[in-house]
Design goal:
The chain is α/β, with parallel strands linked by helices. It has helices at 44-52, 74-77, 95-105, 111-119, 135-147, 165-180, 192-198, 216-223, 230-238, and strands spanning 4-15, 18-29, 32-38, 59-64, 67-68, 80-83, 153-157, 184-188, 201-206, 209-214. The strands form two sheets. Strands 6-7-8-3-9-10 form a six-stranded mixed sheet, with helices on both faces. A four-stranded antiparallel sheet has the order 2-1-4-5, covered by helices on one side. It is globular.
């Protein structure tokens, strides 16, 4: 396996007459936090679902940790952590039971459950049913499930919704540590200040294609927008 933990090669995905992802290629390296941005309908979520193996591309190839999408087995999936935008949890499990289930499926040390509950400030509600959790508590539990065991590739689709400012700060520090440990993070978010401060590179999608890519600084240079909010840089490139 080379230094590319996520490789997308000429991938296309259609739904009837709609081309959701159109001949798109990108790669995310080990030790990199990569942001995938785009307006609603740009194809981000479809691409993310292909990367994590939920959806199969019509053409092209997706490799995670060197394994082709079509032949990806349980061993690869254990190295992949995923937080979907639309989070579905087991309402009649407690928080600790849910994380224990995830840890068991991924063959992760059960001791990691308590560590994640503490990090995401869920220890006080770990024994309560998930059905009684608030939006923020659910999002933190979903993040804990995705990040438990420090997977080689971490894919986070809109991870910040429902989080308070302090937890966003903790999450940013956590992602920086994951990057320093040589892991790969792919993140999609509308919180542009978080993206600019956290990510090594940014890819911007429009109508299923990758229309711009580079570090936040490189994208500012490309647009000549050095003092404007990063969301203005995004809108300029995505429009």
């Amino acid at each position: 396996m080379n230094n590319e933990f996520v490789t997308v090669e000429a991938v296309t995905k259609r739904y009837s007459n709609v081309v959701a992802v159109d001949d798109l290629s990108l790669s995310v390296m080990a030790g990199e936090v990569y942001a995938l941005l785009g307006a609603n309908g740009a194809g981000k979520s479809t691409l993310i679902r292909m990367i994590v193996g939920i959806t199969t591309p019509d053409s092209g190839a997706v490799r995670v940790c060197g394994e082709d999408h079509a032949r990806r087995g349980p061993s690869t999936k254990r190295h992949l952590g995923y937080l979907p935008e639309e989070l579905t949890l087991y309402e009649r499990l407690t928080g600790s039971e849910y994380l224990a289930l995830v840890a068991g499926l991924k063959e992760i040390d059960p001791a990691k459950v308590a560590e994640e509950l503490q990090f995401f400030e869920l220890s006080g509600v770990a024994g309560k049913w998930i059905g009684g959790y608030s939006l923020g508590m659910r999002k933190k539990l979903g993040l804990a499930a995705a990040m438990i065991g420090s997977p080689s590739v971490l894919v986070l689709d809109e991870p910040l919704n429902g989080l308070d400012v302090e937890m966003m700060r903790k999450l940013r520090s956590r992602l920086e540590r994951e990057r320093e440990s040589g892991r790969t993070v792919l993140i999609s978010s509308h919180v542009m200040s978080f993206i600019e401060r956290t990510c090594n590179r940014v890819g911007i999608m429009r109508a299923g294609r990758l229309v711009a890519e580079g570090s936040p600084g490189e994208l500012r240079t490309k647009t000549g927008m050095f003092d404007e909010p990063f969301e203005d840089v995004f809108f300029h490139l995505a429009d």
